[in-house]
Structures are given as C-alpha cells and as structure tokens.
Amino acid sequence: MTAIPLSVAPMMDWTDRHCRYFHRLLSRNTLLYTEMVTTGAVLHGDRERLLGFDAAEHPVALQLGGSDPADLAACARIAEEWGYDEVNLNVGCPSDRVQSGRFGACLMAEPDLVARLIGAMREAVSIPVTVKSRIAIDEMEEWPTLERFVRTVSATGCTHFIVHARKAWLKGLSPKENRDVPPLRYELVHRLKQEFPHLTIAINGGIRSLDEALAHLPALDSVMIGRAAYETPYLLADADRRVFHDASADQPDRHAVVAAMADYAEEARRTRGTPLAAISRHMLGLFQGLPGARAWRRHISENAHLPGAGPEVLIQAAALVRRGRGGAEDDTGADGAAAA
C-alpha cells in the first residue's frame, strides 16, 4: 500500500468521530486516526460508541492499546469488519494507566512481545497493521533501542512504523510533560529510514505547520501532525494542494465548514442525541488568527453547553468573524488569542 503522506495523530479526548468529521471537511486526503481504544473496551464495551464513524471520514485508522495477542487479533478483525482502513498498535503512550495495563510506551522494552502482537494482528486481517512508538523509554539508549525495536517487529512482515521522535520517561514525567520535555530527535527517525529503506517510516512530534511537514517528506514517507492540527485546524485546508498535489483542490471556506458542521450537529442530535458541546469543542480553533476569533470562541464556550443548544449557536458564532471582500475571511488584524 502506498503511504499516505500526511495524517492527524490519535489523541486521547480529542480525535473522536466529531473531530474527525470536522477535519475531513478541511482535507479530503489526510489520514485520520481514532483515539486509542483498549482491547478490553472493544471486546466488552459499546462498539457503536467506541468504533462508530461516518463514511465521510475515510481514510480512517483505528488505534488499539493492548498486550494480549489473541485479544489484539480479535480487535483487529472487528476493526476490519467495521470498515477501518488500517489498524494501529499503540507503543507510545506514556500514561500511568496505560503502563498498569502493560501497553503503550512500556512495550518498547519488549520488542519480542510486540512482534508477537503484530504477527497475531497481521494474521487476522487483510488491512494494514501499523505501529506507533517512541524512540526509546527511560534510561534506554535511543538509537540502539529504536533500531532493535524496528528490526525485531519488522521481521513479522510489518512495514509501517510511525515514530514520535522523543524518548518517553515513564518515571518522573507526566504524560503532558512527555509531549514537550524530552528533546526531539528527528535525526534518528531519518536515520531509521536510511537503515531500513524498504520500510514505510512516518515522523511525529512537534510539527506545527505544513511547511515543517513538507521539510521532512523528501526523506521520509509520511508526517503525522498532532496538537497543531487540533489547535489550529485550518492548517489542514491547504494539505490537499500542497501535500497531496491536488491542483483541483480549493481551500474550503471557513464559514462553509461551519455551515456543514451545523448540519452535522443537527443530524447527530436527531439520531444519537449528541449534545452540541461534544461537537463544537473541536471547532474552537477554526478562526484562529482572524478578527473575531476570540468572539467566536467565547460565544461557543458560553452557549454550546446550555440545555437545548442547537446548531444555530455555531452560525451565530461564525457571524461574529469578519469577512473580507468577496465573502472570504479577512486575514489581517489577528487578535492573537491562543486557541482554547
């Protein structure tokens, strides 16, 4: 399978189905990931709530957390049955909860186990099975750890590795600190591609713009953007043209995106009882950098959670953002407020 050159990272509490639908309105081609879902949740929980997605979200991948080969194989089969385009194993999350369940970044210390997990998943499905990891954990030396991990796991036939270019410190740093404190070592991910040219290697961590993403792509197969895609989502609006080289792709108008999300919110409320705030929270950064962006955020924050709030809240909030000539947003005079 040809690598998709740009994706949005799986992010807990962020990349749910509403966020992914919103992101898809901004880019037709970018690969979207679910939040991490544990094998126990998939096997015993509410699958419609955990796994349900809109057909418009394709291409979309399910990220799993677990450490039992049989459970992961069963969940991979379920992912394929539900129509996901890829299933990904989380070997990068540093949270205490994940460690206590023996999955996430702590698995980097057990590459032979990860190889068994990936082997079981690959035997169970025909869709791609991929791995997302760190470069190392705790006191482990970075390059030998990363090289051995990829060499061991790739022996199963797994060809696609997404590497967050930071070490994870499971002792001493919080999950939030692990996203920022350990230094980025992009050069190790580039070295990985040089050492394993036959593998698909994607880089993740600290990439804030399409310019930064494009700087990696000549040497790597793919770039994964995380918080920047969530906090300033409109950066995805130029991805189809710049990253996927789709000359026919026009930047979506932000107000048109709001109108589409208002329709989506009404449908979600009618069919699933979804409260507006569950959807609107993902949209707060849409007008970041434009006059009225602060008013947009404030109106949503003050009204979307109220009983009976409907999609009109989004339309009212968007009306507070000034348009330039011809109906396009005026990009001058940014208010400078950080995305909520």
From TrEMBL:
<dbReference type="GO" id="GO:0102266">
    <property type="term" value="F:tRNA-dihydrouridine20a synthase activity"/>
</dbReference>
<comment type="similarity">
    <text>Belongs to the Dus family. DusA subfamily.</text>
</comment>
<feature type="binding site">
    <location>
        <begin position="204"/>
        <end position="206"/>
    </location>
    <ligand>
        <name>FMN</name>
    </ligand>
</feature>
<comment type="similarity">
    <text>Belongs to the dus family.</text>
</comment>
<dbReference type="Pfam" id="PF01207">
    <property type="entry name" value="Dus"/>
</dbReference>
<comment type="function">
    <text>Catalyzes the synthesis of 5,6-dihydrouridine (D), a modified base found in the D-loop of most tRNAs, via the reduction of the C5-C6 double bond in target uridines. Specifically modifies U20 and U20a in tRNAs.</text>
</comment>
<feature type="binding site">
    <location>
        <position position="63"/>
    </location>
    <ligand>
        <name>FMN</name>
    </ligand>
</feature>
<feature type="site" description="Interacts with tRNA; defines subfamily-specific binding signature">
    <location>
        <position position="294"/>
    </location>
</feature>
<feature type="domain" description="DUS-like FMN-binding">
    <location>
        <begin position="8"/>
        <end position="313"/>
    </location>
</feature>
<dbReference type="GO" id="GO:0102264">
    <property type="term" value="F:tRNA-dihydrouridine20 synthase activity"/>
</dbReference>
<keyword id="KW-0547">Nucleotide-binding</keyword>
<feature type="site" description="Interacts with tRNA; defines subfamily-specific binding signature">
    <location>
        <position position="297"/>
    </location>
</feature>
<keyword id="KW-0560">Oxidoreductase</keyword>
<feature type="binding site">
    <location>
        <begin position="10"/>
        <end position="12"/>
    </location>
    <ligand>
        <name>FMN</name>
    </ligand>
</feature>
<keyword id="KW-0285">Flavoprotein</keyword>
<keyword id="KW-0819">tRNA processing</keyword>
<feature type="site" description="Interacts with tRNA">
    <location>
        <position position="90"/>
    </location>
</feature>
<dbReference type="InterPro" id="IPR018517">
    <property type="entry name" value="tRNA_hU_synthase_CS"/>
</dbReference>
<dbReference type="GO" id="GO:0010181">
    <property type="term" value="F:FMN binding"/>
</dbReference>
<keyword id="KW-0521">NADP</keyword>
<dbReference type="InterPro" id="IPR035587">
    <property type="entry name" value="DUS-like_FMN-bd"/>
</dbReference>
<keyword id="KW-0288">FMN</keyword>
<protein>
    <recommendedName>
        <fullName>tRNA-dihydrouridine(20/20a) synthase</fullName>
        <ecNumber>1.3.1.91</ecNumber>
    </recommendedName>
</protein>
<dbReference type="InterPro" id="IPR013785">
    <property type="entry name" value="Aldolase_TIM"/>
</dbReference>
<feature type="binding site">
    <location>
        <begin position="226"/>
        <end position="227"/>
    </location>
    <ligand>
        <name>FMN</name>
    </ligand>
</feature>
<feature type="site" description="Interacts with tRNA">
    <location>
        <position position="179"/>
    </location>
</feature>
<keyword id="KW-0694">RNA-binding</keyword>
<feature type="binding site">
    <location>
        <position position="132"/>
    </location>
    <ligand>
        <name>FMN</name>
    </ligand>
</feature>
<dbReference type="InterPro" id="IPR004653">
    <property type="entry name" value="DusA"/>
</dbReference>
<feature type="active site" description="Proton donor">
    <location>
        <position position="93"/>
    </location>
</feature>
<keyword id="KW-0820">tRNA-binding</keyword>
<dbReference type="GO" id="GO:0050660">
    <property type="term" value="F:flavin adenine dinucleotide binding"/>
</dbReference>
<feature type="binding site">
    <location>
        <position position="164"/>
    </location>
    <ligand>
        <name>FMN</name>
    </ligand>
</feature>
<feature type="site" description="Interacts with tRNA; defines subfamily-specific binding signature">
    <location>
        <position position="176"/>
    </location>
</feature>
<dbReference type="InterPro" id="IPR001269">
    <property type="entry name" value="DUS_fam"/>
</dbReference>
<dbReference type="GO" id="GO:0000049">
    <property type="term" value="F:tRNA binding"/>
</dbReference>
